[in-house]
Amino acid sequence: MDKDAKVFIAGVNNLIGLGLKDYLEKKGFTKVLSEETDKVNLLRQEQVESLFKEIRPEYVFLAHYKSGGITANIKYPAEFIYENLQVQNNIINASYKSKVKRLAYFASSCVYPKACPQPMKEEYLLTGALEETSEAYALAKLAGIKMCQAYNRQYGTDFISIIPATAFGPQDHLDSE
Asked: Which of these is catalytic: 65, 96, 137, 151?
């Protein structure tokens, strides 16, 4: 990526999104945009599509929109599945429509089966039951992976999925939820 490329980070209110934004800005990228800088509600398809038509991002990083620990996953499964599905559907489709060069979609290691053989390999996805406490979040993340693959197959996009083993850092929230 050129340092003057238009980069959009969705999910900048979480650890990965914040980390990406900080990293790119420290590396001298001058056009790093996010839902915060553009005051758009990523849950609203019309707002996302309007924003993408206006800013024409070249690269998109789709970080976690709604994420949390075990307690939050148990207490708010409906929000976890709905908000993540809604946002990733809006961002992935808007990226296709506006001809984004590359989209990087961040999933989560919870997409692997609960009893996954070690070390985890991509071919183990969808081969067993998920951990019950994070099932709603995991299903949303699996749908995002499959959506990227489907857009690549049908439309020839360059949308990749990344499954970090874990994430932690300076912006992490370590409360009980």
From this structure: 137
